[in-house]
Automatic annotation (TrEMBL):
GO terms for molecular function: phosphoribosylglycinamide formyltransferase activity. It catalyses: N(1)-(5-phospho-beta-D-ribosyl)glycinamide + (6R)-10-formyltetrahydrofolate = N(2)-formyl-N(1)-(5-phospho-beta-D-ribosyl)glycinamide + (6S)-5,6,7,8-tetrahydrofolate + H(+). Belongs to the GART family. The keyword Transferase applies. The active site is at H108. The record marks D144 as: Raises pKa of active site His. It comes from the Bacteria. This is Phosphoribosylglycinamide formyltransferase. Its EC number is 2.1.2.2.
Length: 203
């Protein structure tokens, strides 16, 4: 099995995935990490792990379509079974999303369908929710609305700031995202009639 990871920044989820793949000896090749920004600090970590760290700068392209086509070509050189978005901060075109239908995952830092878009922790604090979290989902053309694979929750504490809440959620992201990816790689996660299903371990 082959996976390609897309990042835009620090790549802490990417690191958690690489670490889990190594520690748990996943039958997987992390073929490349690709960023739309040359200054994404996660690229260095990938390179240090011997994983090709590639930049496809979105600024080099005048339209979303042109960028997505270039990105798709680079990705498909590695023929991935799964495309993993890990803090990839670009909206993708429907054509790109359709190309990876059923084989592209994302993690979003809220309990979807609540708090789509950006600044999710600020949104959660403003709404006064007592429980917040993160969601792994298949990517569809409808931003942050794809079939939900798994979720994790944390309590919102009275003295939480955006930063403290984000940090607690991130810790949980690093647990659920590798687990979901592992399920996919092991063939236990699939989309059935638009619903994500995870088969439990065989006994
Ligand atoms: C995470 O909070 C993730 O949920 C969101 O972007 C952030 C990326 O962080 N999609 P990192 O680059 O994985 O550290």
């Amino acid at each position: 099995r082959t996976i390609v990871i897309l990042i835009s920044g620090r790549g802490s989820n990417m690191q958690a995935i690489i670490r889990a793949a190594q520690n748990e000896k996943w039958p997987v090749k992390i073929a490349a990490v690709i960023s739309n920004r040359a200054d994404a600090s996660g690229l260095r970590h990938a390179a240090e792990q011997g994983i090709p760290a590639i930049v496809v700068p979105h600024k080099d392209y005048t339209t979303r379509d042109a960028f997505d086509s270039a990105l798709q070509s680079r990705i498909d050189e590695f023929a991935p079974d799964l495309l993993v978005l890990a803090g990839f901060m670009r909206v993708l075109t429907p054509r790109f999303v359709a190309h990876y239908a059923g084989r592209m995952l994302n993690i979003h830092p809220s309990l979807l369908p609540s708090f789509t878009g950006l600044a999710t922790h600020r949104q959660a604090l403003a709404a006064g929710v007592k429980i917040h979290g993160a969601t792994v989902h298949f990517v569809t053309a409808d931003l942050d609305h794809g079939p939900i694979v798994s979720q994790t929750s944390v309590s919102v504490l009275p003295d939480d700031t955006e930063e403290t809440l984000a940090a607690r959620v991130l810790e949980q992201e690093h647990i659920i995202y590798p687990q979901a990816i592992r399920s996919f790689i092991e063939g236990r996660l699939s989309l059935v009639d638009g619903v994500a299903c995870i088969a439990t371990d065989k006994v």
